[in-house]
Amino acid sequence: MHQAHPALRQPVTAADRVLQEIQRAIVEGDIAAGSKISEPELARRFDLSRAPLREALARLERCHLIERIPNAGARVVTLSTAGLLALYQLRENLEGLACKLAAEHMTEAEITEVRQLLDQHLSSQRVREGESYYQEAGDLDFHYRVILGSKNSYLINILCDELYYLVRMYRVQLGMNGPRVSRAFDEHKAIINAIANRDGELADLLMRRHIAASRRNIELQLQQMGS
Amino acid sequence: MHQAHPALRQPVTAADRVLQEIQRAIVEGDIAAGSKISEPELARRFDLSRAPLREALARLERCHLIERIPNAGARVVTLSTAGLLALYQLRENLEGLACKLAAEHMTEAEITEVRQLLDQHLSSQRVREGESYYQEAGDLDFHYRVILGSKNSYLINILCDELYYLVRMYRVQLGMNGPRVSRAFDEHKAIINAIANRDGELADLLMRRHIAASRRNIELQLQQMGS
DNA sequence: TAGGTGTATATTGTCGACAATTTCCCGCCA
DNA sequence: TGGCGGGAAATTGTCGACAATATACACCTA
């Protein structure tokens, strides 16, 4: 359907580069959530004209990092409990589906790669005990592989291009990296096992539970922050 | 999360207007599937500059009607069996989820409105027996209402803004309007009943079956076209 | 003082032209 | 004759300036 996925395609145009920079800045909170976006200011800051900047803004809107109102400008999204729950509700279903499809379509070679990846991440995780950055990267990597394994380009596009930046934004800015580390690893292992056994139904179920657990974890943290 | 949904927001800017025109042109086959898109040509044709046109192209890419390659231009998507199946696979799951959520979140008033809508469409359908345009419109209308009833803005965005134009393109260009008319109406009725009973699980199941039936219908037509 | 109105400012949307890249075509060579 | 550069044409990406719209502020009125 298309050859190399945009998510892992390296930037070739100026708009691509500035998009990545702004994406990172928003996700990491460098540009505050809820703040207004000024096109002239950003253009100066990244030293380019407004044309490629606006192209980048269009794509930022696509991945839900900003909201635009015609003739009135753009704002960075505001993070909310309701938004987070809606997002995870969708993730649960979509990644569950991705697992089911991955069980049907992943090659043995791809499965082996994911397993190696898990072992590798686990060992490097033990060394860097507690450093959440590596957990984050490893976690994302696993989910990405499974999603790509579904071989459904629409599904891949939605999850990797449109939803994941926002997921990361919530994780980074609300500090969602609790003590689920080793448990998450076990869950990942169980999921890839189900995929390897070509048991799509089970893989679906396990992934839904995996994400639901993560969601409950977040809900708890939010709740005790609010009180 | 946001007030009025972009799908039903009337165009205010020139880019909005040309977007709608090109969308219609592509969906109806006025601009052939698979054909290359020339920015200068379209700009002349719609009598505006390339800036708003490029804005429109960015959004067309978002709803999968065109595919862009950096520095090399854009092409209208090509319709394929594989693409259609992948699309419907996703639809089944997402609209199933939408039903489940609608059963939880739709107000009684909204449910009543949908029921009135169904009766209305049914009666006008009987009059215009066989005119597929009205079936199409009525069908879309029903699905839209249910999706909006989910109250999940991410889900709404994906289904109404990003996937439905492509769904319509397949329906229009491959002539997907078989003799499922009255059966589809019954299925719609069953779905809204389940939602009214707040039986999300059943509503989910019925919607999946409803779309799966539509998919099988399409597969059959494709198959006998190919032979 | 509160509210509305009108102007001034700032921001977004659009335009036409230039730069960079790709594509196409022609000639050249094995 | 077939494949491989090289250059010309066309197309996309980027720029700076102008037009249209929205926001902010001061002023006037009740």
Please provide a written account of the structure.
The structure is a homodimer of 227-residue chains. With 227 residues, the first copy, chain A, is mainly alpha-helical. Chain A has helices spanning 14-27, 39-46, 50-62, 81-105, 108-127, 132-149, 153-173, 181-196, 200-226; strands at residues 36-37, 66-69, 73-76. A 3-stranded antiparallel sheet of chain A has the order 1-3-2. In chain A, helix 4 runs parallel beside helix 8 and helix 5 packs antiparallel against helix 8. Chain A is globular and about 55 Å long. The termini of chain A are far apart. The first copy, chain A, binds a DNA duplex (30 and 30 nucleotides) through residues 13-15, 38-40, 48-52, 54-55, 70-73.
Can I get a quick summary?
The structure is a homodimer of 227-residue chains. Chain A has 227 residues and is mostly helical.
Key words describing this protein structure:
homodimer, globular, DNA-binding, 227 residues, 9 helices, mainly alpha
Q: What value does the average pLDDT of chain A take?
A: 89
**How do the strands of the widest beta sheet of chain A line up side by side?**
1-3-2
Q: What overall form of chain A do the CA principal axes indicate? A: globular
Q: How many distinct helices of chain A?
A: 9
Supply Rg of chain A.
Answer: 18 Å
The percentage of residues in β strands of chain A lies in under 5%
Q: How is the main sheet of chain A built?
A: 3 strands, antiparallel
The number of strands of chain A is 3
